[in-house]
C-alpha cells in the first residue's frame, strides 16, 4: 500500500469533526470539548437507526392514508404527484 493511499490521523480527526457537526444538538456541544471518535461513531450509528425508524413510521402512515382514500379523489392525486417529484 502506498503512503499516498493511507489516511492520516489528521484527516481522520477532520472527518470525525465533520461527522460530529452533522449530528443533532451540535450547537449546544460546540462549547464543550470534542467527543472521542468512538463516541461520535456510536452517536452517528444511533442517529441513522433513528432516522430509519422515522422513515419506516412515515412510510407506514402514508400507506395507511393512501389506503383510506378514494383513489380518484383530488387528495389522492395530489399525493401521487408529490410522490413522483
From TrEMBL:
Gene3D superfamilies: Helix-loop-helix DNA-binding domain
GO MF entries: protein dimerization activity
One Pfam assignment: bHLH_ILI
Keywords assigned: Growth regulation, Transcription, Transcription regulation
One GO term (biological process): regulation of DNA-templated transcription
InterPro entries membership: bHLH_dom, HLH_DNA-bd_sf, PRE
Domain BHLH: 1-51
Similarity comment: Belongs to the bHLH protein family.
Protein name: Transcription factor ILI5
Lineage: Eukaryota, Viridiplantae, Streptophyta, Embryophyta, Tracheophyta
Amino acid at each position: 500500500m502506498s503512503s499516498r493511499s493511507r489516511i492520516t490521523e489528521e484527516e481522520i480527526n477532520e472527518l470525525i469533526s465533520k461527522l460530529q457537526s452533522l449530528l443533532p444538538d451540535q450547537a449546544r456541544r460546540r462549547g464543550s470539548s470534542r467527543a472521542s471518535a468512538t463516541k461520535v461513531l456510536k452517536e452517528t450509528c444511533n442517529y441513522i437507526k433513528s432516522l430509519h425508524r422515522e422513515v419506516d413510521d412515515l412510510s407506514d402512515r402514508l400507506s395507511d392514508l393512501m389506503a383510506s382514500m378514494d383513489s380518484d379523489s383530488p387528495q389522492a392525486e395530489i399525493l401521487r404527484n408529490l410522490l413522483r417529484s
